[in-house]
Write a structure and sequence with these properties.
By secondary structure, the chain is an alpha/beta fold. It has 14 helices and 17 strands. The strands form 4 sheets. It has a 7-stranded mixed sheet, sandwiched between helices. It binds pyridoxal-5'-phosphate. The site of pyridoxal-5'-phosphate has 15 residues, from helix 5. This is Acetylornithine aminotransferase. InterPro entries: AcOrn/SuccOrn_fam, Aminotrans_3, Aminotrans_3_PPA_site, Class-III_PLP-dep_AT, PyrdxlP-dep_Trfase, PyrdxlP-dep_Trfase_major, PyrdxlP-dep_Trfase_small.
Length: 398
């Protein structure tokens, strides 16, 4: 494939696809481990992993084989019947999360929708009224469907699509008083990302988590944690909330859960399950179908067999050290935030140009807001990959 090959594809794409993304000008073809290749054969070191999705890296043979095997057996059943992969996946996700009940979805935003419905139903069963309120956080991101968008704390994402679903209030992450001040008799849930992703990599503080948990317990408000980006081993625990020991009533996961196959899930405690969604309240044609469930099963098996979380914990301190050295070295790099393999480096200037230069130099990075470079690599990266990444990034800074 020659240079014009890539250009022509991009021209065709811009005529056929709805233009909702300003895409980088490359056409990706295949992946292997921590590397991606475009259709001209150029190799890229990938520190984005399809936005925190490809935890196991690209073309993991055991994962691919499991999918192929399931494809030849059964791909879809609908949810009117049981299927073994979904039962296995449910048992496994219960075990690693400590939650009691799971509903499988096809995406993160759908998991958020389900969580909102569960919270509203819980409150409805409690007092018979329907105008309950949800407290979400400024700078949060929960997805693009109307419910998830309504609790997303970036006004520009919401503005053109008003009206949102009602009775949503926004507090400040890590400012307990700002949450407490919004609580009324109608509050049914407090929802936030354990580590804010799109908003710029802002981890919840332990004290904030504990205070919210206590407040929720006291007022019978549900604590809902969005683990869609920060979950699945990325922070060195299976779910980021496990680092704090603050267990939610409802949680969502997606992104890395299927290792590349589109899946999501919302999970809840038995107490909430017994007093919220019941037959007829919620559904999905595809959610938890045998192919998606086979992906989840293999991902969770490989997490254990390949010691994925151990790798995060062994390499992440090195990544942090290397990023911190950049702060010392360059006065336009302000600070680092994050945990494990979910890191943000905040610049005093916009990062778009640096990310473009890195791409030209064979390194895939992504922003989180205008001034933060986000590092969400496959969870299999080594110290050598970190060194390569830092070398290319430094070449791309000037
Ligand atoms: C990506 C993301 C979502 C939405 O997931 P989709 O699969 O894109 O719908 C929701 N919450 C968080 C924290 C995310 O990072």
């Amino acid at each position: 494939m020659n240079q014009s090959g890539m250009k022509e594809y991009i021209e065709e794409a811009e005529k056929a696809l709805l233009h909702t993304y300003n895409r980088y000008q490359i056409v990706l073809d295949k992946g292997e481990g921590v590397h991606l290749y475009d259709i001209e054969g150029k190799k890229y070191l990938d520190f984005v992993s399809g936005i925190a999705v490809f935890a196991l890296g690209y073309c993991n043979k055991a994962y691919n084989d499991a999918l192929k095997e399931q494809i030849d057996k059964l791909i879809h059943t609908s949810n009117y019947y049981y299927n073994v992969p979904a039962i296995e996946a449910a048992k496994k996700i219960k075990k690693v999360s400590g939650m009691d009940r799971v509903f499988f979805t096809n995406s993160g935003t759908e998991a958020v929708e389900g969580a909102i419905k569960a919270a509203r139903k819980y409150a409805y069963l409690k007092d018979g009224t329907t105008d309950h309120e949800i407290i979400a956080m400024e700078h949060s991101f929960h997805g693009r469907t109307m419910g998830a968008l309504s609790i997303t704390g970036t006004p520009k994402y919401r503005e053109p699509f008003q009206p949102m679903i009602g009775n949503i209030k926004f507090a400040q992450m890590n400012d307990f008083e700002s949450v407490k001040n919004l609580v009324t008799d109608k509050t049914c849930a407090v929802i936030f990302e354990t580590i804010q992703g799109e908003g710029g990599i802002y981890p919840a503080e332990k004290e904030f988590m504990e205070q919210i948990k206590a407040l929720c317990g006291e007022k019978d408000i549900l604590l809902i944690l969005d683990e869609i980006q920060c979950g699945m081993g990325r922070t060195g625990e299976m779910f980021a909330w496990q680092r704090y020991g603050v267990k939610p009533d409802i949680m969502m996961t997606a992104k890395a859960l299927g290792g590349g196959v589109p899946v999501g899930a919302f999970l809840m405690t038995e107490r909430v399950a017994q007093q919220s969604l019941t037959s007829g309240d919620h559904g999905t044609t595809y959610g938890g179908n045998p192919l998606a469930a086979a992906a989840i099963n293999k991902v969770l098996d490989l997490f254990e067999e390949s010691h994925i979380i151990e790798n995060v914990n062994s390499v992440a301190p090195y990544l942090e050290k290397k990023l911190d050295e950049l702060i010392e070295k360059y006065d336009f790099i302000k600070m680092r935030r994050g945990a494990g393999f979910m890191q943000g480096l905040e610049f005093t200037r916009p990062v778009g140009e640096t990310i473009q230069k890195a791409l030209d130099n064979g390194l895939i990075l992504i922003n989180a807001g205008t001034h933060v470079i986000r590092f969400v690599p496959p969870l299999i990266i080594t110290k050598a990959d970190v060194d390569n990444m830092i070398a290319i990034l430094e070449r791309s800074l000037s």
